[in-house]
Structures are given as C-alpha cells and as structure tokens.
Amino acid sequence: MLDARNVLLTSHARPDGDSLGSQLALAAALRRLGKQVRIINIDPAPALYAFLPDLEIIEIADSATDPCDAVVVLECSSLDRTGVSGLEERMIINIDHHAGNVMYGSLNWFDETACACAEQVSDLIDALGVELTEAMATHLYVAILTDTGSFRHANITARTFEICRRIATAGIDPARIAAEVYTNGSLGHVRLTGMLLDRMQLEYDRRIAVLRLHDTMLAEAECAADDIEGIVNLPLAVRDVRAVVFFKHTGTEVRVSVRSKAAVDVRQVAVSFGGGGHRNAAGFTIEHPTAETTRQVITRIATAIANSEQ
Ligand code: AMP
Ligand code: MN
C-alpha cells in the first residue's frame, strides 16, 4: 500500500455506514500520504449519510477502467459484491470482516473479530502513521456506531472502545453524530415504519416476524427506496421474536434482509440462498420469487432457530 501512488477504493453495492465511513477515512489518510485516491461505488449513499464530511468525493459508476496501482476493496466478502466491473485483473487489497470471505485479493486482510470494517481501517491508518483528523474520526465513528447497531452487537470488544476512545480524542461530538444518524430522518421513513409494523406477521410460534414491502407502499408513505435502513431491527424488541425477515419486493426480484438474536445463525440461511452477512444480520436476493420460495425462507429460519435451541 505504501508503494502505490494511484489507489482506487471501492465497497459493496447499496452502501451502509461502515462501507461509506471506512472508504472515506482511508481515502483521507492515503491523501495525507500524498497518494492519488479515487472512490468508485455503484450506488449513491442513502440521504441519511449526507452529513458525512467529503462524501462528494465518491464517484458513482458501474465500472473502473482507468489504470491504478492498487484497488482496496472494503467490506466485501466477494468481489462481485462491489457491482463494479473492471477490477478483476488489478492488484486487489481485500479488507473485510464478513464471515465467509472468499479471499479474492492479491492481499487479503480478513478479520471476523472486527466489529466493523472501520476497526480494521482505524488500525491501518495507525500503521500508516497518519494522525486522525476530526473528519476521519467522524467517518470511523459513524461506521462503528451503525455497524454495531448502536453498540449492541456481539462482536463489540475492548478494542472497539479503545478505538472509540482515540476517535473521541480526535475531537468528534458523539451526541451530534448520533443526532444526525437517528433523529434527522424523513417523515416518510416513520410513516413507512408504521405501515410495515402494522402489517407484520408472526410465524413459528411468534418467534419469526415477517415484514413485506411493495413499491406501492413506498409511494403511499412518500418514502424514498433507500430510506428503509433500520426498520428490519424493530421487531427484535419483542421478547418472543428470535428472528426477523424483511422481504423487499421490487420489479421481478425480492431483496431479503434477515436479523436475529444471540445464537440464531441467519448467515447460514442467507448463504443457502446465495447471499451472506453475519450471524445476526444477513441478506440475499431472490430473482422471480414465488410464494413457495418465500415460504422456504421462513422454514429455513425456523430451522436456524431450532438449531440454536439444541
Ligand atoms: P442488509 O440486510 O442488506 O442490511 O445486509 C445485512 C448484512 O448482510 C450486511 O453485512 C451485508 O453486507 C450482508 N449481505 C447482504 N446481502 C448480501 C449478499 N447478497 N451477499 C453477501 N452478503 C450480503
Ligand atoms: Mn461492516
């Protein structure tokens, strides 16, 4: 990484707080070392993240053709998660914390114990000898705050808080950042949340909550398609609920998000449908879904719950 002069950064399609924060912090650090850095993502950031410093440096494209010395792929368990073509033949540095990473890089740094990819980026910035600026600290904090479900997930460790201590020392305001992330949303998001929860179904002895979204509901709630983050977690507030499945129907496909509690492994369910993620947060896409396939998803989640109770 130190030899490369021209570096391209990328991450997964439909970016989240960790992919955006990790890319922006690393870009800022590499620029401090005098490197030429570009970030190319296939999808724009959700409006929620508009407050992130330097967000505008991210270019939106589905291919990367210009020459560069190295491509750093963050937060992707496989290269196709980027959705960006033209990366295959490059010198790729794979930095990720998702179980099941297929080690597609020329260099692979896979750390499943990291609570967010931003933990790895924070260590990398340290190793590069770059001092954290307030902007970089903001990027890293947003990544860790959102990827840990507001400091609630199981992979939080003393290291997480040590990194956050250093981030806080760099001058960020955690309360202001939390306010940007959690209390600056749209009315449409809250309306859609109401509609989804109102129609929520419970399966498997109330242990699985099922949410279904159709495009018509987005229009009715006046909610943007990329403004649904976080809703999938809400049914977990119910004591009996062990897992949530959220079917998002668009056109001829359905994007499926799954969340679970404790030992319920929904990553395995996602993998069985060609997706991936973490034990308690995973996702996949079904092309041309039928009632039978969505029923199969619920059945496999029920099996994951049963397995966790053995
Ligand atoms: P989501 O439900 O989209 O918020 O995704 C939850 C987790 O699963 C995140 O860590 C994603 O990176 C991961 N994930 C979602 N979809 C896929 C997929 N098709 N392949 C691999 N990982 C995925
Ligand atoms: Mn992550």
UniProtKB/TrEMBL annotation:
InterPro entries, per the entry: DDH_dom, DHH_sf, DHHA1_dom, Oligoribo/pAp-PDE_c-di-AMP_PDE
Gene3D superfamilies: 3.10.310.30, inorganic pyrophosphatase (n-terminal core) (3.90.1640.10)
Domain spans labelled DDH: 7-144
GO terms of molecular function: nucleic acid binding
Limits of the DHHA1 domain: 220-292
Pfam families reported in the protein's UniProt record: DHH (PF01368), DHHA1 (PF02272)
Domain of life: Eukaryota
Name of the protein this chain belongs to: Bifunctional oligoribonuclease and PAP phosphatase NrnA
